[in-house]
Amino acid sequence: MKSRRKFLIHLGTGLIPVTFGFTPDSLLFKTDNPPKDKKLRVALMGLGSYANRVADAMKDSKYAKVSGVISGTPSKIADWKKRFDIPDKNCYNYGNFDAIKDNDEIDAVYIITPNALHHGQCLRVAAAGKHVICEKPMAINAKEGQEMVEACDKAGVELLIGYRMRFEANTLEIVKMREAGEFGEIKFFQGLSGFKIGDPNQWRLDPKLAGGGAMMDIGIYAINGTRYMVGEEPIWVTAQEVKTDPIKFKEGVDETITFQLGFESGVVASCLSTYSMNYLDKFFLNGTKGFAELKPATGYGPIRSETHKGRLDLPHITHQTKQMDEMAKIILEGKKPTIPVDGKDGLKDLKIIDAIYQSVKQGSKVMLDL
Amino acid sequence: MKSRRKFLIHLGTGLIPVTFGFTPDSLLFKTDNPPKDKKLRVALMGLGSYANRVADAMKDSKYAKVSGVISGTPSKIADWKKRFDIPDKNCYNYGNFDAIKDNDEIDAVYIITPNALHHGQCLRVAAAGKHVICEKPMAINAKEGQEMVEACDKAGVELLIGYRMRFEANTLEIVKMREAGEFGEIKFFQGLSGFKIGDPNQWRLDPKLAGGGAMMDIGIYAINGTRYMVGEEPIWVTAQEVKTDPIKFKEGVDETITFQLGFESGVVASCLSTYSMNYLDKFFLNGTKGFAELKPATGYGPIRSETHKGRLDLPHITHQTKQMDEMAKIILEGKKPTIPVDGKDGLKDLKIIDAIYQSVKQGSKVMLDL
Lengths: 370, 370
Prior knowledge:
homodimer; 370 residues; 33% helix; Gfo/Idh/MocA-like_OxRdtase_N (chains A, B); oxidoreductase (chains A, B)
């Protein structure tokens, strides 16, 4: 099911509009005022702590609601059914969720499972003809990511990645200021992303489920942030790995990696990804005329921001509420977000992660082709 | 002339004290209360803007005073003679300053000339039997630095490098906190040092006089800062260069370099050196129990500082006044500074700079042996 979105995007690039069975009135559809009776009906896959956070935030969403669940744990399903008033017919497990194809009460599936499972699950959701929202990282390498993009494209469903910061007010204001030239020529970006990870037995420290270490989970914020803050795609990467606890951080699970991204324009980014320290979460964008700092930059908020003109500190809206509102508008109305959150964009982060791991391995610069 | 300092340092390391012609009373000499009639008498070599700043600051020094000048510009000498009440006999030019050997009104020469001149000038001052204070970088490569250390050692004179931050109150308090374990195990340091350089015709952009680019002049703050903030010597370095203006920044003059320093303990430092942007000058030290941030970190002050316990922001004392007071105590009384500022220490920064340039050239990690 090709959505209205494709049509509107083509309009935006100046192509001649063609009506596909809906009236011209629909072209005047205001994205801020969708029909009140239509919400994006989302089934959450994987009922861990982040899924709980998303579902709670969706209670305040005007455009999306929890309509189904997919879980391997019957007791969790029972709990969620009560909390979100979900009928039996909208509850699935990992064995039978392909049947969601025939469920007309579910529009999209939000995959919130361990990283290494995203690829296979996304392919099954796409095959069932439902839109896919997938937590970051969308997969554990670019090859998987590419297959997901192709599968969703082929099935005619959206693939959106859970980059909640791309809808955050301070972040968007800074991007807007950059586009208006308020920082002059951009020269430098710094992203310090990390935290001290606790429980050594969690899936994030299991290379088979996590597909990597801190880079997959938290370093990706610095990668992603570099791209949307700089507003240009990097052309090379260098990276250095340090491991102080090889028991906790097994082979294939990176603890701390510093990495640098270079750009055609001469911008350079210097980033940190780590599972072994707190007091981080800082973005710093520097140009010839001014700077912007986000600190914290990507936590659950409030995000705090400062520029050469003074503090911004725009009002906090629960990120997951805002994300689901915006993703519903993208899927239901073809709204084009300020910063893309689609699979093709998420794939670029995976290409950079692949290159970071390769640079660590070979000890030299790796060129990027995004 | 071997100074009293060597003797006291030996005492400090537990060697048996031997009196070299002075009475045991002198061992009780309090470094905070030197004889009021004895000040370190300093001749300034190179009367540019920084020399003016140093000389003005020395007006408030209790332990050092401007007693002579060495300059190639007669009009500058005339001006300084008036301003600092300097007799004719204490004024030299670059041709005749070796005669300072016979001047018993000069104890030390402070070299504040272009980087590439330091080496030759230091060797001549040492040969004249005067203590040497030399601006950073002490020389333009480690080979030169090593020769300077050896020359001063042979001549029995002190060689101190103008690292004014090593006497700054906020910096020293953070070092003290680190030594007391207040940040836990140190994990990460970040030093962002740079500014947008102006006049394209200044000596700092002439490779023959500067011996390099931003790294020599401002990047060295991040290098030096990494070492005193982390409190450990790095064992490897990686570096990446970016040049956006090859007209202004000629061959041999680095514009922007990102570099990383690794430590035996697993600490990693991520630094920036640049001549093409402002809004920098930030140090960030991160450990398992807390952090420290200096912002600005190395400007002329006031330095502003924050830790996980709150803001420090200790009172500002003009850095150059404090530096000259402390250096006078080191030379006259053998005081041991909290952080070393001697030539052997300065030489380590040059070894790191050599390795940074090498890493840029070869595109891979360079091991350090400090």
